[in-house]
Amino acid sequence: MAKVPATLIAAGGLVGGYGVARWTKKRPLGGVALAGAGALAARQWQQAAGTKAAVGLTTAYVAAFAGSHPLAKKVGAWPSVFAVAGAVALASWAVTRNSGEQ
C-alpha cells in the first residue's frame, strides 16, 4: 500500500481542520483533525529527514495555523487557509524532496 506523502498530509490537515471546524461549527473538532494530521506528518518528516527537520517543519505547520488567522482578516478565510497550506506543502517538499518521501 502506498504511503500518503507528508506534504499532502500537512496541507490537508490545515485545509481539513478548518473545513471540519467551519462545517460542524465545532472548533475543537477541527483542532483534533489539525493536530492528528500534524502529528502524522511530523512522524513522516522525522523518518524522511530526521528530527531537526521534523521540528522545523512542525514549527512551520503550527506557525501557518496561527498566521492564517490575521491573514484571513485581509484576504478572507479560505484564501488564507489555502495560502498557508501551500506554503507548508512547499516547505515540506523542499526539505524532504531528496528522501523519496515527500
Folded structure, characterized:
The chain is mainly α and 102 residues long. It is built from four helices and no strands. Helix 2 packs antiparallel against helix 3. It is globular. The mean pLDDT is 94.
Helix content: over 70%
- The unreliable regions are none
The ordered string of helix (H) and strand (E) elements is HHHH
Shape: globular
- How many β-strand runs? 0
Percent of residues in beta strands?
A: under 5%
Structural class: mainly alpha
Number of helices: 4
Largest sheet, described in full?
Answer: none
Mean pLDDT: 94
Radius of gyration over alpha carbons? Answer: 13 Å
Distance between the termini: 16 Å
Lay out the secondary structure.
Elements: H1 6-24, H2 27-49, H3 51-75, H4 77-96
Summarize the structure.
The chain is mainly alpha-helical and 102 residues long. The protein has helices spanning 6-24, 27-49, 51-75, 77-96.
Which features does this protein show?
102 residues, mainly alpha, 0% strand, globular
